[in-house]
């Protein structure tokens, strides 16, 4: 599959600007990533200082923007263009969709709105599929995946690092190239304890 080469092209939705993080956003990034509740289901620990936020920006964002292709977005309200969250699609073979949002903006459909824009962009650019995973104790994240048209495929147990505790993840996938039978099996093959659950379409999982 030939991809369109682009790096985090700016996107606009009804309420949002989706754009690259810049060094001017370090304080906003710190506010997002220092909140323990917001970061409960993320692999890294909450940030403790602005210095850690600067290091995170360099490692996660500046490095991504230096590559030929990346999708690593700040989620910003149009009213002030200040980041209130993030959303990304990885460019390894998982094409993993990930997101986070400040808790005062939860329940407003913001991540779903941002996610739909990202899905349309990566589809235009030729990505054949995206995947996403969520902790079974975070069903709200699973409902975002469903609203984006993603389908549950399987569950697996992983000892998550660096927090070093056992997590049961649910893996969702959306095929963008018409190959509806494709299943990304890496996590199934990698982790011995894997299984398929019977889940409702929406609501509590």
In summary, what is this structure?
Helices cover 26% and strands 27% of the residues. It has helices spanning 26-33, 50-65, 110-124, 139-147, 186-190; strands at 11-12, 16-19, 71-77, 83-89, 97-101, 129-135, 151-160, 165-175, 194-195. A hairpin with a 3-residue loop joins strand 1 and strand 2 (16-19).
Residue-averaged pLDDT: 94
How do the helices and strands follow one another from N- to C-terminus?
A: EEHHEEEHEHEEHE
Distance between the termini: 34 Å
Strand content: 25-35%
Say how many strands there are: 9
Radius of gyration: 17 Å
Helicity, as a percent range: 25-40%
Low-confidence stretches: none
* Structural class by SSE content: alpha+beta
| Strand numbers in spatial order across the main sheet | 1-2-3-4-5
Overall shape: globular
Give a quick account of the main beta sheet: strands, pairing sense, barrel closure.
5 strands, antiparallel
Question: What's the number of helices?
Answer: 5
Describe this structure in words.
Strand 7 (151-160) and strand 8 (165-175) form a beta hairpin. Helix content is 26%, strand content 27%. 26% of the residues are buried. The chain has a five-stranded antiparallel beta sheet, sandwiched between helices. The chain is α+β, with helices and mostly antiparallel strands and 205 residues long. The mean pLDDT is 94. It contains five helices and nine strands; from the N terminus they run ββααβββαβαββαβ. It has helices at residues 26-33, 50-65, 110-124, 139-147, 186-190, and strands spanning 11-12, 16-19, 71-77, 83-89, 97-101, 129-135, 151-160, 165-175, 194-195.
